Amino acid sequence: MNDNVLLIGASGFVGTRLLETAIADFNIKNLDKQQSHFYPEITQIGDVRDQQALDQALAGFDTVVLLAAEHRDDVSPTSLYYDVNVQGTRNVLAAMEKMALKISSLPVPLLFMV
After folding, report:
1. CATH number, position 68
2. Does the pLDDT value for residue 17 go beyond 60?
3. Which of 27, 30, 65, 79 has its CA 20 to 30 A from that of 89?
4. Bridge partners (DSSP) listed for residue 81
5. Where is the NAD-dependent epimerase/dehydratase domain (predicted)?
6. Counting Cβ atoms within 10 Å, is residue 2 exposed (0-12), middle (13-18) or buried (19+)?
7. 3 state DSSP class of 33
């Protein structure tokens, strides 16, 4: 397969496992606020809170997988939960709409926040 796939937030545990299984079959990149320890060569530093950067980052991709989330109990300031998980998801969806990328699924808990 030659699909260009952008994983957003794939430097953590779940994203790293997904990269391990998908890297052989797709042209894949990771956009994350932190460098991947296992896949630095395909990681671009970025933040879902930055709409302009997202608009640029999504250019040229066929598929986007959103994994970015603040989920730890000790996030500070606590406003990051909303900024990343809600507004960040909105930003990704807006960038996808600009690029005419279709949404295939969205985690159910996020549907109630967006």
Report:
1. 3.40.50.720
2. yes
3. 27
4. none
5. 5-101
6. exposed
7. coil
Q: 3-state secondary structure string, 59-109?
A: CCCCEEEECCCCCCCCCCCCHHHHHHHHHHHHHHHHHHHHCCCCCCCCCHH
d(CA 75, CA 85): 12
**Domain of residue 99, residue span:** 4-113
Tell me the pTM.
0.86
Q: CA–CA separation, 91 vs 97, rounded Å?
A: 10
Q: Per-residue confidence at 69, pLDDT binned at 50, 70, 90?
A: confident
> Given this model, what pLDDT does residue 106 score?
55
In terms of pLDDT, which residue wins out, 18 or 109? 18
Please tell me the total count of domains within the chain.
Answer: 1
Buried b or exposed e, range 58-73, using 16+ CB within 10 angstroms: beebeebbbbbbeeee
